[in-house]
Automatic annotation (TrEMBL):
<feature type="domain" description="FAE">
    <location>
        <begin position="1"/>
        <end position="94"/>
    </location>
</feature>
<dbReference type="Pfam" id="PF08392">
    <property type="entry name" value="FAE1_CUT1_RppA"/>
</dbReference>
<dbReference type="GO" id="GO:0009922">
    <property type="term" value="F:fatty acid elongase activity"/>
</dbReference>
<keyword id="KW-0012">Acyltransferase</keyword>
<dbReference type="InterPro" id="IPR013601">
    <property type="entry name" value="FAE1_typ3_polyketide_synth"/>
</dbReference>
<dbReference type="InterPro" id="IPR016039">
    <property type="entry name" value="Thiolase-like"/>
</dbReference>
<keyword id="KW-0808">Transferase</keyword>
<protein>
    <recommendedName>
        <fullName>FAE domain-containing protein</fullName>
    </recommendedName>
</protein>
<dbReference type="InterPro" id="IPR012392">
    <property type="entry name" value="3-ktacl-CoA_syn"/>
</dbReference>
């Protein structure tokens, strides 16, 4: 078992004491899609008890959201070498019509650690597909 906590502050005086600095925040809103909107809902059951209803599509939608977030944050955090390789592959396949496999950037060069919620094997499997 382990745990971690962090206290964020926007006070100028806390800047000198801070151990870490938050550089990028990425949020993806998928509520416009009905399938995404309805994947987690608070509903009442037949006995009138309030509870949470999880759709069977939850893992798929979570994977799509993660993929969207990684696509957004990639250009912000990846080193220039990884961005250049991605760009060259994209240009080769789109402009020169070469049959190249899409380049998957190596995010290990940008991050020291990945922190994955251990909510179950299905969560880890879906994250593995997205990454």
């Amino acid at each position: 078992m382990g745990g971690a906590a962090i206290l964020l502050s926007n006070r100028w005086s806390d800047r000198l004491r801070a151990k870490y600095r938050l550089v990028h925040v990425v949020r993806t809103h998928r509520g416009a899609d009905d399938k995404s909107y309805k994947c987690v809902q608070q509903t009442e059951d037949s006995e009138g008890n309030l509870g949470i209803s999880l759709s069977i599509d939850l893992m798929e939608i979570a994977g799509e959201s993660l993929k969207s977030n990684i696509t957004t944050v990639g250009p912000l955090v990846l080193p220039a070498s990884e961005q250049l390789l991605f760009l060259l592959t994209l240009i080769g396949s789109k402009i020169f019509k070469l049959k190249l496999k899409p380049y998957i950037p190596d995010f290990i060069q940008a991050f020291d650690h990945f922190c994955i919620h251990a909510g179950g094997r299905a969560v880890i499997d879906e994250l593995q597909k997205s990454l």
